[in-house]
Amino acid sequence: MMVERACRRCHYITEEKVCPNCKSTDLSEDFSGLVIIFDPKNSAIAKVMKIEKKGRYAIKVR
Ligand SMILES: [Zn+2]
Predict the structure, then answer these.
(1) What is the value of pTM for the model shown?
(2) Which end of the chain has fewer CB within 10 Å, C or N?
(3) How far is ligand 1, taken at its centre, from the CA of residue 6, in Å?
(4) CB-neighbour burial class of residue 2 (10 A; exposed 0-12, middle 13-18, buried 19+)
């Protein structure tokens, strides 16, 4: 099974070693909470978290 990591910069959750969202390599396996954004333009959560791309995001990344 692949290990999922959350990006410390944008909180995007990925199985890659580089964040496909912001290209950061600063990823952490230690994250909690999960939001799935389908429609960033019409999502209040996406606005608060400054998310512009749909995907899965961690609430907290340590
Ligand atoms: Zn990122």
Answers:
(1) 0.89
(2) N
(3) 8
(4) exposed
